[in-house]
Each structure stands twice: as structure tokens, then as C-alpha cells.
Amino acid sequence: MRAAVLALTVILGTTSLTAAAPPPPATSPAAPLIERAKFFGNPSRTQGKLSPDGKWLSWIAPRDGVLNIWVAPASDPTKAKALTAEKTRPIRQHFWSPDGKMILFVNDKGGDENFVLYGVNVATGEQRTLTPQEKTRVDIIGTSHHIKDRILVGLNNRDPKWFDVYSLDLAKGKLTLVFKNEGYAGFVADESLKLRLAAKSRPDGGTDFFRVADNKVEAQPLGAVGLDDSLTTNPLGYTEDGKTLYWIDSRGRDTAALIAQDAATGATRVVGQSDKADVGDILADPKTGVVQAYGVDYLRTEWTALDPKIGAELDFLKTQLKGDIHVTSRTDDDGAWTVVVDPVTAPAATYRFDRKAHTLTKLFVNRPELEGADLAAMHPVEIKARDGLTLVSYLTLPAGADGKGDGHPDQPLPMVLFVHGGPWARDGYGYNGYHQWLANRGYAVLSVNYRGSTGFGKNFITAGNLQWGRKMHDDLIDAVDWAVKQGITTKDKVAIMGGSYGGYATLAGLTFTPDAFACGVDIVGPSNLATLLKTIPPYWEAGKQQFYKRMGDPTTEDGRQLLHDASPLFKAADIKKPLLIGQGANDPRVNQAESDQIVKAMKEKNIPVTYILFPDEGHGFARPENSIAFNAAAEQFLGACLGGRAEPFGAAFKGSSITVPDGAQFTPGLQAALAAK
């Protein structure tokens, strides 16, 4: 069961900063300082995957300092060879062709998100550009276990708003039009690579689902969801025989359940559910597509097996591996899996699980340089918002700061509130490079699933509708108040930091609640919600009405006022705490203008701000050289604000494209580091 449908996901500071000496550290962590490059540099290896026939093992690892794809015989991983030779942009995703002869990957240019699909022949090393169209983005629509020579892809080269469906012959690289798309948000194909289902967005922010037969869409929808269910109801795909369609579905309930629907009669039955959180993941038989287990992530992911054999395998893995377990690939005969274990306080490791021999073989550790390091535990906590909503959150304390082992520091610590992007996404339990880095510098780190976050039912998402900078922000303030009452921090020692919506939350924190935070770090955050909605990528057309209904409708007077009032740009004059901004010049989601305009507004009021711009990045920093450079500045900035430890700049800017258009003088050591570069 392999299918792809469209889902609405992530879209997304007159006081002198140097007037006072940095406050003394609130704590003296016993753990040695860990170099930031060990957190934000290239992993040694990641994304281990077995080929469908089990003959090969692939992974992503550096080649000449850039992440590339490597392959080795599964029987002897020491005989690895680099299969690609990217020189600048790291490869971040890869997958095997159904016949196991080719590895496929996507990449963009400088963060523009116009992803191109490439294929590399494993035997010859020949690389081919499979979607060479300019200013075009590729989506994978469907792959099959028994049709080995082609896949279905979506391309928006004809109309940037909509993805036409093509059959791609992998050996020849030939594209054949299957469906000309005039307004459908996404599709589901079956194992015969026939389109079976099409989704179309509605003016109310909901979605209609239509049957597709012979590449023609039926006139009447077979089902529909309104706005409330639109982020919690999606088809997953068909079983191999095409008789059953699986859904993640919240219709008639709050949390999304795993539903099986009879494709002929339309009858449905509940396969798996939880009252606490949505079903978020599945394990399906590679041959039949029948779901064998499902995962629910409330505080942590818990798996429920539907197949006793799979249940026994998961139990075995739990006894052998200490940490949360993720099955990342399965061979077609299901004889071997790759399994990743995440212990949180140690770097993740990838294993080969031979089901016939019932043996585990350790393949690699993704960041071996962190083995033996004093990494910090993560504590899931439940925080009550002022109106009674429960906010699932994650707290990390510096190693050694929690002498009693109860998730509370021995004395209050400076704290960084680290806000996730989206906002229709979530924080979860597991190793987090930002949490570990900040904790190592002496900070408590708190991440909050504020209302609007996904995974906790549709009512929790709906509670965030039209609440940007309002109740969504109140949740963050309530979480800080909780941390103060718990003795985790003090009210004057809290910074706010995040990317995308988290960057917006940072700007909102320093404008709408200017006394709540000691400083803020905004990474690719929008400052004006009206201009944000005007400049979203054209291929987000299908989700536009959802944005309007959940943020504010710019086509109405009331909506425009709502967006204006929730935009930090128009409160920039109220900023009185230090602010650091990071931006990618090619960001298609949150354009550079979003950062430019608030920096301009602050300069006009003589409010200091440090603005860092990367000309070769988009929505976030894909190149590790740029992540290291930005975080080198961020830890100096936070050290001056909160008093935590900071590694000297050193060679942090080596290989980075960092520019600082404004305010280098307001972050300690930044001017000197730039001059040295």
C-alpha cells in the first residue's frame, strides 16, 4: 500500500542590547561543553534502507563534506561506494525504485523547493534527471510492489497551482500523461498504479473525495469532510487486491481513528483508535498492504499490533533495543527490516533485523561523535492552559541539573521556550538537536504543543482557529508560567526561539507581550500575516481556503483586520528586548520580505536587531555549514541575554554563506567573527 495525497502541513524584538554586562550563569553544568558541530554538522550516516529485493543497503552520508547517497551489498556493508556526487546542496531524502535497480532522490536549488526527481542506477552509477522541467516541483503519487518498472508522479509545470499525474518509466525516463489536473488537491492510486481516488478542496475549507475510474473523476463525491475534519481525515491507500481502502479518519469523533473501508460497498469499520491522540503511523504487510500494527503518539508513541506475529516482533525489538523504535524499511518478502532506535540520551542507531534468523545486526550510529557524551533526558509533561486545555509538552534539563531525578532542576535555570513550526504540526518525544545543544549550554528547554498543533484530535486543532497571536500565544505564556511555578526557571530568565510559526511566535512574544521574555530568536518567521498569505507558493492553492479559515480571510474586511491585529510588524515599536533574526533569501513559504520589513520598522524606531541572511537557503537552513554559523551567533546572543555557556565562534563560519545585513554589533563577537571570515 503506497499512495500520496495532499495534506496541509507546515507553512511555515529602545533598549540597547549591549548596555548591560551579561548576567552571570544561573547554573554551572558539570557536563563538558559539546561542540555545536556535533549537533548541527553532517551526521556520519542516516536513513539506512534495504532494497526491495534485500540485496542492497543504502544510506545518506557525507562525501567531500556534502550529504550524498551510498550503497553497499547488504551482506557486506563495508564494501560501500558513493552513488551520488552532490557538491553544494545536501541530499535529505532517498528511496528505492520498486525493482531495486535504482535509487531515487529529490533535491532543489538553494532552498527554492522546486524539487527535481533524480535516479541513479546502482550497478552502473549512471545518474539521470527524471523530471528536468524548469521551475517545477515533483510529487510522488504512487508506487507499487508488483509493477516494478514505473511509478506515478505529479508535476506542476503546465499550471503551477495543480499537479498533473504522469506515469514515469524509470528505465527510459519517459513521462506519459495520465491525468490533466484542473483543480484536484491530491490522488490515491492502487497497486496497479491506477488512480482510484481524488481529493478536491471546498470553499468552506473542507474536502470532497471522488472515485476515479479509467482516469475520469465521478461527478458525485463518495465522501466529504468539513473544515474541522480536514487536517485529521485522509485516505492512506489500498490493499494489494484493491478491495480495502484505509483512512485516518476523525469523522463523527474527535481523535482520528484507523478506518478500513470496503471499496465496493463503502462499508467502514474501525481498525484502531485512541481517546488520547490520533492514530499517526502504521505498519503494513509489503505483499498484501494489510495493516498489521498502528502507532498512537500522545506523550510517546505506543504501538498496537493487529497481527500476532508482528506483535511478537515488536516485543522482541523492545526487549533488545533501549529506546523508541522505528521500522524504516522492509524487504518485499518481509524477511528483513531496518530498525532505528532512539535512546534520546545517546545518538540513534540503525540495525538490520533478520526475521528468519531472529537476529539484530548493528549497522551504524548516526552521530558516533556523541557516543559517551552527557546528553540530557527529555521529560514529557502535561500543562494546563488557562481555559483547561491540556498542552502536551517536552522538557529537557541540563545533564546533572536534576539531582533528584524527578524532572525538576535542583535550582531554577534560565530557560529557552522552543516553539515548533507549522503551526499544524507537533513536537514529539525523541532526540532533538536543539534541545540537547541548549541544555548543554545550561538552559532548561521547553517545547509546547499549543492549540492548533496536530496529533491530539480535531477539537484541539479547531481551538486554534483564528487564534494566531491570541489564544495560541496564551498557551505559550501559560507554559512559561507553569515552568516558573514549578521552580524550573524564573520569570526574568526566559527566551523564546523557533522557526516558521515558531519564528512568528518569537516576534509575537516580543511585540504583544514585550515584558514576558528576556530575548528572542526568530528563524524564518512571518511578521505580516497579510503579506504572508499573498506570497505563499502557487502549488498551495488547494490549501488556501484552509489558511483563510484558520488564520483570517484577506478577502473580507473583518479578516483583513484580524490578520493586521495578529501581525507583529505593526507592533514593532513595542519591542524592547534583544532580537536575533535568521532568514533564507530563497524561502518560498516565508519570503525574505517578512524579515526585511520588521528589521526596517525596528531601525526606523532606532530599536537594535541582529539580522542574519543566507543567500543560498530557503525555509530553514539545509546546509550544515549555515546551521552551525547561525547557531554560533545564537548561542553568543543567548549567552549575553540569559547567561548560559557559549562556545567561541572559532571557525564557525567556514564554508557558510552567512551575511549580516544589520546589527552585527548587537551580538557579542559577531563582528570580529565576520571579519575573520
UniProtKB/TrEMBL annotation:
InterPro entries: 6-blade_b-propeller_TolB-like (IPR011042), AB_hydrolase_fold (IPR029058), Peptidase_S9_cat (IPR001375), Peptidase_S9A (IPR002470), WD40 (IPR011659). Keywords: Hydrolase, Protease, Serine protease, Signal. GO terms for biological process: proteolysis. The keyword Repeat does not apply. GO terms for molecular function: serine-type endopeptidase activity. Residues 435-644 form the Peptidase S9 prolyl oligopeptidase catalytic domain. It holds the Pfam family Peptidase_S9. It comes from the Bacteria. SUPFAM superfamilies: alpha/beta-Hydrolases, DPP6 N-terminal domain-like. The keyword Cytoplasm does not apply. Residues 1-19 form the signal peptide. This is S9 family peptidase. It comes from Nitrospirillum viridazoti CBAmc. The lineage of its organism: Bacteria, Pseudomonadati, Pseudomonadota, Alphaproteobacteria, Rhodospirillales.
